[in-house]
Automatic annotation (TrEMBL):
Pfam annotation, one family: Peptidase_S66C
Segments forming domain LD-carboxypeptidase N-terminal: 16-131
Name of the molecule in the record: LD-carboxypeptidase
Family: Belongs to the peptidase S66 family.
InterPro entries cross-referenced by the UniProt entry: Carboxypeptidase_A_C_sf, Class_I_gatase-like, LdcA_N, Peptidase_S66_N, Peptidase_S66C, S66_fam
Keywords: Hydrolase
Coiled-coil regions listed: none
Species per Swiss-Prot/TrEMBL record: Streptomyces zaomyceticus
UniProt entry tagged with the keyword Hydrolase: yes
Length: 347
């Protein structure tokens, strides 16, 4: 893969594109979307520019790709930010203008289904950023979590090394976006257990690659933006799971298949996000949420023991579908220091 290029970051007063590569959910849930836009203006000093399909529910993959192509081509746009994720962004990738985007690299922020675009950009040699959607992080009721705000500000407006830190408090339960009372206070949080380290007797530095595990599985099945496994040797794998809450068995089977492909053993270090363990479809109570997270960790450890037994791994890191959320560079350097129990990324 090409050597990574860090596109220049926006500065206060610059324009940033707001896009919905996976679907126009801002049109269905305007409250968190408008709140996120207001915070981009007020707290980050940026000017959001909305594209035609951003609020358009039912837009085609070709139409959404046209917005992305236009955002990267526009010289006044200094970064591209996803409104939210979804589930069909894989159908957008064939309509993207690879050479146009390669010629006009810009920082892109998104996660979940945006794993598609993150890995598309990685294959072009462009560093992108796993995290920071408008509706979820910027549109969080009450206020941004301080750890989220600090990381997002460093990644969106800054550059250079940034040390991730375990959060003292974490949240998992969300209020409905169509209920005004959801936005009257911050989401409930509870004390965090910190990070869990495995094989933490070494230091690994490598380029970050990964994203949402369910989306990675789809991309592997479609053979979309997946390079020969040897090209991932020495990189740092980062993984998270979504609010669809895959079972521990499913997580193990996805990783097993990655192992059978020869992919897992390429990564000397793995970062695993704290699993999202509550959703409206599975509203687990406290002990059941803890058990779900424990089962998922054991599933990952089982796969690693079989296919990458020497790899260093860190669990329950705050990225992906977590609150707070810290930004992970896709295609940028990550240093995992086991003896010192430190993770440093480069924005």
């Amino acid at each position: 893969m090409p050597d990574p290029v860090h596109p220049p970051k926006p500065r206060p007063g610059d324009k940033v594109a707001i896009v919905s590569p996976s679907g126009g959910l801002p049109g269905l849930f305007p409250r968190p979307y408008e709140l996120g836009l207001a915070r981009l203006r007020r707290e980050f000093g940026l000017i959001p520019v909305e594209y035609p399909t951003t609020r358009a529910w039912g837009s085609t993959p070709r139409e959404r790709a046209a917005d992305l192509n236009a955002a990267f081509a526009d010289p006044e746009i200094r970064a591209v930010v996803a409104s939210i994720g979804g589930e069909d962004q894989i159908t957008v990738l064939p309509h993207l203008d690879r050479e146009l985007i390669r010629a006009h690299p810009k920082p892109f922020f998104g996660y979940s289904d945006n794993t598609n675009l993150l890995l598309f950009l990685r294959n072009l040699g462009v560093v992108s950023y796993h995290g920071g959607s408008v509706m979820v992080e910027l549109g969080r009721p009450g206020a941004l979590h301080p750890l989220t705000a600090r990381s997002l500000r460093a990644a969106l407006l800054g550059s250079g090394p940034y040390e991730l830190t375990p959060s003292a408090d974490v949240g998992d339960v969300n209020g409905p976006w169509d209920a005004p009372e959801t936005f009257e206070s911050e989401p409930r949080t509870e004390p965090a257990d910190g990070w869990f380290w495995h094989n933490a007797d070494r230091v690994v530095t490598g380029i970050g690659w990964g994203g949402c595990l369910e989306i990675l599985a789809w991309m592997l099945m479609a053979d979309r933006e997946i390079r020969p496994v040897e090209e991932y040797a020495g990189q740092v794998l980062f993984l998270e799971t979504s609010e669809e809450m895959p079972s521990a068995d499913e997580v193990y089977r996805i990783l097993r298949n990655m192992g059978e492909r020869g992919l897992l053993r390429q990564f000397p270090a793995v970062l695993v996000a704290r699993a999202k363990s509550w959703s409206f479809g599975q509203p687990l109570e406290g002990p059941a949420r803890a058990a779900y997270r424990k089962d998922q960790r054991e599933a990952v450890l089982r796969a690693l023991s079989e296919y990458a037994p020497e790899s260093l791994a860190v669990f329950d890191v705050d990225f992906g579908h977590t609150d707070p959320q810290q930004v992970i560079p896709c295609g940028g350097p990550i240093r995992v220091d086991g003896p010192a129990r430190r993770i440093t990324v480069t924005y």
